[in-house]
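User: Hello! My lab partner asked me to get a predicted holo structure for this protein. The small molecule is flavin-adenine dinucleotide, SMILES included with the sequence. Please write out the structure tokens.
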Amino acid sequence: MKEFKYDISVIGGGIVGLAAAYKLQKKYPYLNIVVLEKENELAFHQTGRNSGVIHSGLYYKPGSYRAKNCVDGRKQLVSFVKKYSVKHDICGKIVLATNHKEKEKLSELKQRGEQNGLINLEIIGPEKIQEIEPFAKGIAALHVPESGIVDFKGVTNKLAELITEINPKSKILTSCEVLDVNEESLITTIGTINTFHSVFCAGLFSDRLSEKDKMNPDLRIIGFRGDYYDLEDHAKEKVKHLIYPVPNPEFPFLGVHFTRMTDGSIECGPNAVFTFKREGYGKTDFNLRDTLEALTFSGTWRLFINHWKFGWNEYRRAFSKRLFLKELNKMLPDLKMSDIKVGRSGVRAMALGKDGEVIDDFKIVKNKNNIHVLNAPSPAATACLSIGDEIVKQATKSFNLKKNKC
Ligand SMILES: Cc1cc2nc3c(=O)[nH]c(=O)nc-3n(C[C@H](O)[C@H](O)[C@H](O)COP(=O)(O)OP(=O)(O)OC[C@H]3O[C@@H](n4cnc5c(N)ncnc54)[C@H](O)[C@@H]3O)c2cc1C
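Assistant: Hello! Below are the structure tokens for the protein in complex with flavin-adenine dinucleotide.
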């Protein structure tokens, strides 16, 4: 069995792992860092299957990590993609109210956004909505000019490139799965990695890897699949930028929305259905261990009981194009069955507490040698560089890192 030696290992080749490794490498260029990714490419799971939206920081509870890191992370991300020419567009978005109840919530949302430091938020009427999104129908909307779209996979690959540019001894190893965690080594599918410290950014498997590191996380990761439909070429003119519904504060997801992607395609979605396989992108995918772990956890059942109606409706919609379209028609009444085709899917890592409560803020924990990103839900892709700073802060202290190699 081969052996390798590195100062720090980062487990997970998603955008959070790469941002953490990049920020560590930038601050401590002498460190030999290795990123270990089990797939044969980076950003294969959540990062490469998300909506591609640069979130502004509108929705999150003021003072939460998500609010702070989203706003700071967005600013850093926009500078980064401009500097390194990664595909993006700060095209703005509208949050569309289609009835009076939703309209009332817009001012609350605007206030929250302003508390989080967003600028130029504006509540607009049907005429201005028409100007921005000619096919959208609403009685009012919140215009959010700081939102945008980006190629998150492109960002991840650029971060990887920069790491090895700073220190050619650092490595990005794909097709390398971490199987077990020992005191100062990791057992992987390609051999043993001897390492003083590790930073775990394993997304859908964050809880399992923390257990392997002898921690007892007070949460369980449950996979929630999100399916998208694509607009057919002839219907693409119906969406110019980003159109979001007014979110229901009782649910952890933003609701199905319309997104223009950086490759010019237009996606509608994602819904949110419990999945029987953490990395299951097909509607009938199943994994016994994932299912047993989810269904033997009390929090899952509490979540099901508390939100059974929402869950049931999402499930029906997952199997019915007609019902999916009905939801989309609330914002775009002119959209027809022939305008949409089945697209891709992504699975969100949703962290649940034992009481069924959705843990919606970012969660980073430490033990003696290592750091674990236990929860990095949306907008973690937007916030990745700010999360990277947080990891550097924690690593500097607990790994006792010095500016210069001594
Ligand atoms: C449908 C959907 C839509 C979203 N939309 C947005 C959006 O528009 N904007 C936004 O900011 N955020 C969005 N998000 C959230 C965002 O994508 C995630 O918060 C972010 O990608 C998390 O990144 P990550 O690196 O933690 O996880 P991931 O991208 O899942 O990366 C984790 C990596 O760890 C690897 N791994 C796991 N176990 C091991 C192991 N044992 N050994 C080696 N490697 C391992 C996995 O293979 C994976 O590549 C969305 C998410 C989803 C699913």
